[in-house]
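Hello,

I think I submitted the C2E job twice by accident. Can you confirm which output corresponds to this input? Input:
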Amino acid sequence: AKDNGRNCSQFFTRGIDDTLQERIGLENALHHALKQQQFQLYYQPQVDVSSNKMIGAEALIRWIHPEKGIIPPDAFIPLAEETGLIVDIGRWVLESACQQLRAWTDQGMDGFVVSVNLSALQVQQPDFVSDVCQIIKRCGIQPERLDLELTESMIMRNAEETIKTLKQLSEQGLQISIDDFGTGYSSLSYLKRFPLDKLKIDRSFVNDITNDPDDAMICRTIISMAHNLNLKVIAEGVETNEQQALMRSYGCELYQGYLFSRPVPASEIPALRERSFEV
Ligand code: C2E
Ligand code: CA
Ligand code: CA
Ligand code: CA
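Support: Only one job matched these inputs. Its output is below.
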């Protein structure tokens, strides 16, 4: 029995060392990736079904690893958040999205909106607002064309500070959206204190909307309350015609999901902008 105990603890120690080493390895690799410009933004169309046109796109980061290929954000964003590296990565994302928007505007894509994901730590930086304003100014883009996505849990964690920050950004004309809406615990009446433009209904609800009456009811309720509060609603993760039709019958106007398009490299966006997304 004694031996077993020792083996057991040796096993655990080695296990922890391995993970620690993996983490340190990944952390170093992330630093390197930022310096070597191995990150790239993909863009996923956001479609307005009243016109069947793409009105904007969400920027989604990818790590183009020289050996491993394309690494999705879920594999490195959490560690970047833990280590604080997300602040630098997030700044790169904003800068890069704004430069892209500038280029698209020069190509004649008027009114196009780019949505960018933010992290809690990034928003908590004391110079976050001035950073954003500087980037916008430097790229010469209209603030209304930039949409910042924050999750519900992110703003609830540090509500008073976040309200202040978002108010400043909103006064500058930027759009603010709540991502993954419905997964947190906030009430819409509470959210009314935030300067919001749009709610993004989490894809876990949209996914099951045609099978699960509870999810259908949640979507319906979010849409009607959001409209009463003068907020736009976008459904994320829309994969089927049935999901789209049901959401549409509830009054949802904006859509993002594989049904319309996967996230694509920036170079593919101008052609999609011309397309009609009739489904
Ligand atoms: P998110 O903000 O909820 O982004 C939507 C995710 O859903 C994307 O995954 C997108 O590819 C995926 N998706 C879109 N349509 C569909 C669909 O129809 N079906 C399904 N099953 N999935 C769909 P992705 O690109 O892997 O990003 C995952 C998460 O990583 C994002 O979730 C976001 O939280 C985070 N992320 C991505 N880019 C950034 C970034 O630049 N900064 C920060 N802080 N986080 C980012
Ligand atoms: Ca998002
Ligand atoms: Ca989301
Ligand atoms: Ca989600």
